[in-house]
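$ ./design --mode recover --in tokens.txt
reading tokens...
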């Protein structure tokens, strides 16, 4: 009986000894494939972020010009209405080319800004109209103002308040910042410091935020 038990133990030891290298080899193979898969995913994500940064570099200057024009800040007096309408065409092209690089929140955020700035679908082949008043622009440009530019503006009933343009711009730029890896955004650098109430705070942490009127009360 003792000899039989001893033989069984020896056989078990031999089986374990024989299987151990196989188990180690299988585990090493699985781990190696897993590491390669993780590396490939990281490389792919890095390339996506690089393309997003490139898209940001392409869009951000024109978005800032749009913001300045409609919010009456920066170089708004240097831009004529036809230039701003042309800006919309180039922005739309760049945004829709870049849209697949971003998630489903990109185009709604982009469209919210552009729809606040331009009245579209005015007729077949008709240019978009500027949702802003021409009065201060006409006064600022003086003799440089062309009467032909009056047709570039939407009706007064369709004008968007500058504060709404600023809010939409802040929302979009905060989204883009988060999409390229920024974890904090100082909205004072973007507009009036107010963040849209429906902004997804989990995407990016806003610093130096100006309290809303309700919060102050």
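writing sequence...
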């Amino acid at each position: 009986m003792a000899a039989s038990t001893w033989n069984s133990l020896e056989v078990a030891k031999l089986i374990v000894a024989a299987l151990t290298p196989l188990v180690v080899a299988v585990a090493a193979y699985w781990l190696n494939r897993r590491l390669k898969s993780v590396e490939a995913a990281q490389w792919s994500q890095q390339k996506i972020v690089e393309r997003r940064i490139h898209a940001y570099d392409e869009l951000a200057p024109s978005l800032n010009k749009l913001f300045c024009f409609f919010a009456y800040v920066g170089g708004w007096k240097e831009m004529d209405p036809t230039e701003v309408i042309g800006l919309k065409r180039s922005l739309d092209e760049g945004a829709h080319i870049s849209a697949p690089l971003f998630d489903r929140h990109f185009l709604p955020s982009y469209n919210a800004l552009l729809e606040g700035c331009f009245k579209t679908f005015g007729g077949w082949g008709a240019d978009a109209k500027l949702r802003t008043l021409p009065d201060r622009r006409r006064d600022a440009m003086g003799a440089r103002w062309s009467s032909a530019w009056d047709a570039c503006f939407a009706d007064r009933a369709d004008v968007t308040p500058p504060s709404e343009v600023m809010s939409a711009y802040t929302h979009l730029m905060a989204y883009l910042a988060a999409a390229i890896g920024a974890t904090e955004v100082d909205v004072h650098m973007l507009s009036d410091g107010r963040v849209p109430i429906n902004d997804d705070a989990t995407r990016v942490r806003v610093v130096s935020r100006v309290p809303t009127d309700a919060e102050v009360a």
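exit 0
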